[in-house]
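Components:
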Amino acid sequence: MVGVVIGPFLVMAIWASQTNGNAHWPSAIDIVLGIPLGLLLGYAVGLGMQRQRLKMQRWANARGWTYARHGKSALHSKVSHAEELKHFSTYWKLGIKSSFMTRRVDGRGACIHLATHANEKRKNTKNSFNNDQPKCRTFLIFDGGTECGHVVIHPHHMTDAIDLPGGMQSIKFELNEFNKQWTVKGTDPKSAYDRISQKTIDYLMQHGTDYAIEFKGGLVVVSSSAANYRSFPTLMGYATGLTRVIADDLLPLFEFLEHEHATEASKDTRAENT
Amino acid sequence: MNMQALVALSGGATVAIIIGAAIVLLIIIVIAMYNKLVRLRQSCKESWSDIDTELQRRHDLIPNLIETVKGYATHEKSVLEEVTNLRNQAVADKDKGPAERAKVEDQLGKAAGGLVATFEAYPDLKANQNFLQLQTELGETETRIARARRFYNANVRDFSNGVQMFPSSIIAGMGGFKDGEFEFFKADDSAREAVKVDFGS
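Structure:
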């Protein structure tokens, strides 16, 4: 349908470029030529999108997840406390979101999706051309299973040292190396200390600073800088590990990838990558 | 008023504004430092009260545990006596400081753990729902004590740093904040000693 509307204008634009821009409105010949051309283009684009959706659907099903075409509604229907997301500082509320996949295990929901930042760009360091890519991030949102105060854990930045009045309190831990690499802020230091035990500190240090974690109410958001749905299993594995190192009464274990799915997933990912 | 006088006046006003702004900034910094020390002191008190609550929970659980296992104790009377004595001592030390309480509480924690481990070997007790319930509760209480202890010690460390470090040490001195106002709830030194393993000859 979009193709039918756009088609005549497209033909007119091509015609105008050939005749030094003298055309104003589509003429009869533009419409006659444009409608079939637009239909063809629209069909091709629709087919490509459908194929991509089917590919993601198969990919998600192979890993025990469900691909959600209408992502935002799927997120809110599967994850019980998704309305809390508006209070999360590490979540890109204004980002353009895509590739939503959802899962529900033992009454707890999870949703993973990609997001492209509305303004920020990622520096392309591979070549000298000015073709900076939009900044992307993967978000895994899930029901924590227990209530928690607001706690944010993210890689350390220079500006983190400034504590704004009324803002979240900076929380320091026993290990200086950890404090240098990570910033922990929150409104409830006790919740942060309970969750960030020595085991959690070791886990975070071991896996590098590519991730950010945030707890609030019954919701947990874990994100990484991965920019493709094929890297979802890495984030899922990281989040599963996190639920393992935090005590069960504070964050019950959540297997985002079941064992057999994890094995299949790694095989599939390898095959797709090759 | 001539031009020179006007320039001199505006120059004086600028200096006065700069000095005034610096004083206001200094006052804000002093207030922020003082408030931070007050907050840290309050955190220490609150986190100590959390430890106290959990220790009290353990004191309440132990008599129930002893009551449950008493009927099965034929050869383990000494274990029961040791736990009872330590529990009584811990209750008596309730008003003492964290450092002193930590010694007895650590011993009590170990002894209670040992008691549960000893009686786990009794098949009748293993099927006793009351024992299993108490065992779980004791385990959970120990975990909560460990968490509360870590948080309290972190608060004491932050308070101590605030009192000792410049420039907040000046505010601490004027505001009556003293280093050593709160003691660490430290583990028993014997618990830190390396385990000696005898591989035999």
